[in-house]
Amino acid sequence: MAKVELQITRRKFLQATAAGGAFALAGPGVGALQAAAAAPTLGPTWFREGEIKKSYSCCSMCPWSCGIIASTVNGRVYKVDGNPADPKSRGMLCGRGQGLVSFAYDPDRLQAPMVRTGERGEGKFQEVTWEEALDQSAEKLMAIADQYGPESIAVFGHTAGDFWFVDYFAQAWGTPNAAKPSASICTSPREEAATLTYGSGVGGHEPMDWEGLQCLTLIGSHIGEDARNTVMQDFANARARGMKVIVADPRFSQVAAKADYWLPVKPGTDTALLLAWINVFITEQRYDVEYVAEWTTGFDKLKAHVADMTPEWAAEITDVPAELIRETARVMADNLPRAAIMPGRHVTWYGNDTQRMRAIYIVNALLGAYGREGGIYFNKSPYIESYPHPPFTITGTSGGCSAEPGAESATLPEGPTGKVRADGGRTRFMRGATAMQELIEPMISGEPYPIKGLIVYGVNLLNSVPDTERTKEALRNLDFVLAIDVLPQEHVAWADMVMPEATSLERYDDLWTLPHKTPYIALREPAIEPMYETKPGWWIARELGLRMGLEKYFQWETIEEYLDARLMSIGSSIEKLREEDGVIVQKGKPYFEDYGDSSPFATPSGKIELYSEELALAGFDGVPAYEAVEEPPDGYFRLLYGRHPVHTFAKTQNTPLLNELNPENDLWLNAGMAEEMGIKNGDRVMVENQDGIVSGPIVVKATQRIRPDAVFMSHGFGQADARLTNADGKGASDAKLISRYAMDPICGGAGLRVNFVKLVKEA
Ligand SMILES: Nc1nc2c(c(=O)[nH]1)N[C@H]1C(S)=C(S)[C@@H](COP(=O)(O)OP(=O)(O)OC[C@H]3O[C@@H](n4cnc5c(=O)[nH]c(N)nc54)[C@H](O)[C@@H]3O)O[C@H]1N2
Ligand SMILES: Nc1nc2c(c(=O)[nH]1)N[C@H]1C(S)=C(S)[C@@H](COP(=O)(O)OP(=O)(O)OC[C@H]3O[C@@H](n4cnc5c(=O)[nH]c(N)nc54)[C@H](O)[C@@H]3O)O[C@H]1N2
Ligand code: SF4
Ligand SMILES: [Mo]
Fold first, then answer.
1. Please, what is the Cα angle at 205 between 202 and 209, to 5 degrees?
2. Measured from the CB, is residue 34 less than 6 Å from ligand 1?
3. What is the C-alpha to C-alpha distance for residues 336 and 334, in angstroms, rounded to an integer?
């Protein structure tokens, strides 16, 4: 693996750490973090012990994928910094990014391919060679396909290398049952609503025009806990120059603490709040009249619909005082078109989420925000060719969080019955994306047709998909489960075959190509050789493909050949890309002016559809209506969950550095309720849900910062696998307690905020 080897001077090194040191947005100081990352094996002078090799990649600690520069000495990577040339890091990383080195050197990592020897779930395995692992896996999968058809194999994927499996392998192989949790358990309502309302998805990078934004409204998006690097940078910069901030959240989140207005909305009632804002804009004539006339359809229907939805009406439903609703609407309107509601990211909440997202976009349209400077710009994908391959057997299966390169968004073809997705009957819409949670059912019941094989790449199956017990039943029922992971996560104990992947610091990945204000392409190259017996995902997908009759899709011999072929289409190469600091930034077309006479809105009307004919024809509300959600029963709280600033989902709790910073979660409980219940701050409680599932113990944080009808915990803790030595048994698991979900009939999303819990004091 050839690499540009740079001799770094002492001065340059100090500059690099200073860039890293500018990270001051969340978590402890970077100095402490890097000292801790380095602590196990190095003295203070690692950078003098040999030549420092630099390599360019993207951080894989979360889907934001900030550009990094890794520093390696004598085959050991010591440090990662944000790549200053990368639009998504601008020379900085968040706390989790600083944990990347520690993630790679986690001693609990999977080290060799293994075949199951005990019962599923027991976690008893025997090491095998790669040859054996690949041959046996291909044989098992082919046998399943022979009996039940190619669609009986499901492919689940997420994290940095999922392209090779969910997008490439699954489409080449020809299974429509390929899914990412980042679609139906994360963004699908906002993507579907965006497509219905203004004709394109939000994309992986929310296109807020931060530089000019004057009023930002957040509906349950908690910037700060949601620690995406440049989102925090952009927020901090905009706030510093006086941007107004309005936050609706049942919890006084980090960002609520920085806001001008906090609206402690009753959970599940946001649509009423949004409709009341619309009512104020229209009745007080405080919307962008010209923009609405030129660029929207259905205004009269919207106007009639919200006529009675006054702030007083919404106050009864949301618990937010009418005057506060009116005042915040006026603040937004006073700043239009430099005012917008940021589309949330994890928006699968209550099962009616597409309609709530439509209401958000309608507010943005009335403010005239789309395509305007300081509002919401139009994302553009960078230009680059794919590696040439014969037409896929099936296309447009995975969709998902479009942050992933190569994600398709086409509608699944109405092909021969066998090719239709197993979740296909659940919703008429769901363009491109498969509802992952709906594929569990056919694994158990065989309806509408059997799914018998599962490849799970970088998905934390028992922590990300709701109803863990049902997932375990499915895993018991499958003929063959192949897990490709880096850690012995809980679901790995249920696999028949385990393949250990090299971490992102040890491998090439496909180019990172992202729709952005400035479309860009980033290199992902290894800093070090794969450790132990691990292999890169692209190699695993290819070797499996070659054994399963897919040679024609894997014509390239080496990954360098693959990457160079793509880069050639823009007159570049791996070598050139390295010389250009690992990133190529192209020019964007972010505003109306760049569209000339054509419309940027790819809806049937070519306008923003305030009223959706398409939804109405399918029997749904053409304009969003408020629907009440189920209330917690007596003695129960609604279970809310969200991000922790130094952890990503359920994958970093075991990372030595991040575990040290934050080993367990706590349970936010309203202080008044705590007192009433005789629970003190710091007490440990068990949490029991409506179905009798218990998780914990977890430390109570008794606080005024949350409403009395809900409790909150951060996601990803309470894991149960002794092989995860740091994470095992720490805190409580939101995932285990989410045994129910509400299916959104429009987008196929799994609403997770429909579970109720009571607290049991630990003896
Ligand atoms: N209960 C609950 N469920 C949720 C959420 C929640 O907040 N609460 N959030 C939802 C959201 S927004 C999302 S996007 C999804 C996220 O869902 P996931 O992506 O499944 O979440 P993670 O826990 O990050 O799991 C990543 C998995 O990839 C493995 N991994 C990490 N790096 C690599 C690598 O380089 N190669 C390979 N092969 N494996 C790797 C990890 O060990 C882990 O098993 O979860 C959704 N589900
Ligand atoms: N540190 C860190 N950052 C991350 C990630 C991570 O794992 N770790 N993951 C990334 C990913 S993939 C995603 S999808 C995003 C997710 O980030 P967000 O989209 O912000 O989603 P959540 O973390 O689920 O947000 C939970 C917030 O919604 C509030 N809430 C709960 N119920 C309601 C309600 O009914 N109404 C309103 N208005 N608010 C409510 C909660 O109190 C909480 O503050 O984070 C990204 N950033
Ligand atoms: S936001 Fe943080 S964890 Fe996510 S990619 Fe960027 S540095 Fe890594
Ligand atoms: Mo997500």
1. 90
2. no
3. 6
Q: Is the CB of 65 under 6 A from ligand 3?
A: yes
Task: Look at ligand 2, atom 26, and give the residue with the nearest C-alpha.
Answer: 642
Q: Name residue 164's amino acid.
A: W
Question: Can you give the pTM of this predicted structure?
Answer: 0.93
Residue 457, beta-bridge partner list: 157, 484
The pick from 226, 266, 404, 641 for probing ligand 2's pocket by mutation, whose C-beta has the most ligand atoms within 8 angstroms, reads 226
Q: Which two tokens stand for residue 76?
A: 């050991």
Nearest ligand, measured from the Cα of 740: 1
Could you tell me the domains of the chain? 205-378+596-617 (3.40.228.10), 637-761 (2.40.40.20)
* CA distances from residue 147 to 364, 406, 454 in whole angstroms, order as listed: 51, 31, 15
Cβ of 185 below 6 Å from ligand 1: yes
Residues 490-525: tens digit of each pLDDT:
999 999 999 999 999 999 999 999 889 999 999 999
**Cα gap 359→92, rounded to integer Å:** 35
Atom of ligand 1 nearest to the CA of 648: 24
Of 53-57, 178-182, 474-478, 480-484, least confident by mean pLDDT is 178-182
User: How many angstroms does the Cα of residue 64 sit away from the middle of ligand 1?
Assistant: 13
Three-state SS at 583 = strand
Output the six-digit token pair for 46: 């690692």
